[in-house]
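Subject: Interface between my chains keeps coming out wrong

I've been trying for a while to get a sensible model of this assembly. When I model each chain on its own everything looks fine, but I need the whole thing in one frame so I can look at the contacts. Pasting all components below, labels as-is. Any help appreciated, I'm running out of ideas.
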Amino acid sequence: MTANGAEAVAQRIADTAAGCGIALVASLPDGWITPLITRIAADGRFRHVAVNREESAIGLCSGAFLSGIGSFALMGASGFMTCIYAITKINYTYQIPLLIGITLRGRPGDGAKFHQSNGLYLEPVIAAIDMPFVPIERSEDIPRMATAYRHSRVMSRPVVVGFTREVLRGEA
Amino acid sequence: MNFEACFRLLADRLKEEVIVTSAGNCSELWWEITGESERVFYLEASMSLASLFAAGIALGAPERTVVALSGDGAFCMNPGMLLVERELALPNLKHFMVANGCYGSTNDLVHPFGEIADYAAMAKAAGIERVYEFSTVDGLAQGLDDMVRGAGHAFAVLHVEPLGRHAQSPPLDGPEVKFRFGRYLERTGGRPVFDTPLSAKPV
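Reply #2:
Try treating it as a single job with all components included. I did that and got this:
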């Protein structure tokens, strides 16, 4: 990974988010998205909120929808897995759109053994709750974030975009 | 203090604010007393996220006062909410936490946390400057305006007795709550919430 590569990707993701009307980003870090969070936190186009747990990002961003603010909940794969209740109870019950960004931990190439569970269950869980899933596997896919954001509003449901390690490192 | 008397006072005095209620007694009692279905978002079953949901509304609507009514059961699940509230420091967010020492939505099953912890002290330790604690209806009547109308984010602990009965849940499905609330905000001067306005236009 080159710092310049990761920073360039972070900038591109931030530009895409701002371009589709996102003004609030609530995040909790994963090592893969540290440069992205740093980029967003320093970007005056966003109100960045560092939350105490991932569920809080779901609550905060869902409320923000009702005051007309576009938002993005950014977190790691494990954090996302802790949010299933909040997502299904808030966003599904009330049909509140939300764009969620996660890391695709546990995919082949992730050397962290403690992400075996994400390798096995992350994407099946997303599928199990019928959440639209947009993988961002190459830098050319980054504009699909905007499509995902719009799709969330059309569907009145959350949509999750998943970033691969290679994309976030500027290697794909 | 008596739970119902406490909420009757709040309902009587909080007429202009936007309200977010958490699961169980807060939603049920507010509905029973007011029957309101527009300026209130009945966030049932969020398990501790009512105040941060309210914070999201307050963030985008700085001209409104947003009141969150949550319970101590939910609070104990996620006391870190105070840290995020402090980080946000939204002057238009007022958070009332009902401390009844039980899970009101599940037959008033008692929990021990109120005996162990000082919720108001926890809020102060989290850095929240305007922290209130009310144990009587008279005390609440006297301090309510200062808490709600005073400048700055505020957190209040409402010490109440268990409700001791079941109350009716608001008879509204989730999407109806969303649309009633969102259209209310739009109609009363808020920025557009939904992508399509609720007004017919010639094709």
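Reply #3:
Confirming on my end. Chain A has a mean pLDDT of 96.
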